[in-house]
């Protein structure tokens, strides 16, 4: 289920998922008229008042826009590794069970050109309605896959030429402006849940532990915010190098 004008536009215009039906208020229909007109006759568009929409949904849907999409199987991990690319950035999530954080990370991944997001078996669903809304539709566009063989999937990435970089505030971690060993042309950036952080198994599998410099007395920031800082760092480097 997709909620909001922006995410619904993403579903129709730029996602790998097929829209099944739309349920909108008259103002939203007018605002999305160009997008809605691109839909084929097989996709019904139901138009009703705000009150009727709220009654059907069960709560006040103040965005006045809801769409159902057809879920398709996630691509296999092998399709997301980009074996021919000179540079690649994958975002790997362990234990992310907060849909707001997950959606924020997908939004950052789209903004900073990550090739895909990989989620461990314990992480929440990128296609959950709240995750889609917070991501502004990015989880409909950024490719993702679930790593069932966790944490063995990290070894699969290493064999494909990725350096496993764990974002971790520990004392043994290095800062991103340290030597070039911190950076590589193919990076898998691993992030853990807030509180527990990354598991010992994930940290052991990492080639490098990376920390974000912070003021004294502060040991961490929100994981979505941390992901944006880290992804922006790699994005700037790849853009400067002309990487794809």
Notable traits:
244 residues, alpha/beta, Alpha/beta knot, 2 domains, 10 strands, 36% helix, elongated
Distance between the termini: 32 Å
Number of domains: 2
CATH class of the largest domain: Alpha Beta
Structural class: alpha/beta
**Which word captures the global form?**
elongated
Topology order in helix (H) and strand (E) letters: EHEHHEHEHEHEHHEHEEHEH
Round the Cα radius of gyration to an integer and report it. Answer: 20 Å
Brief rundown of the structure:
This protein is of the alpha/beta class and 244 residues long. The chain contains eleven helices and ten strands.
Structural account:
The chain starts with a strand and ends with a helix. Helix 6 links the parallel strand 5 and strand 6. With 244 residues, the chain is an alpha/beta fold. The chain folds into 2 domains: 69 residues, 2-Layer Sandwich (60s Ribosomal Protein L30, Chain: A); 165 residues, 3-Layer(aba) Sandwich (Alpha/beta knot), CATH 3.40.1280.10. Helix 6 packs parallel to helix 11. The protein has 11 helices and 10 strands. The strands form 2 sheets. It has a 6-stranded parallel β-sheet. 41% of the residues are buried.
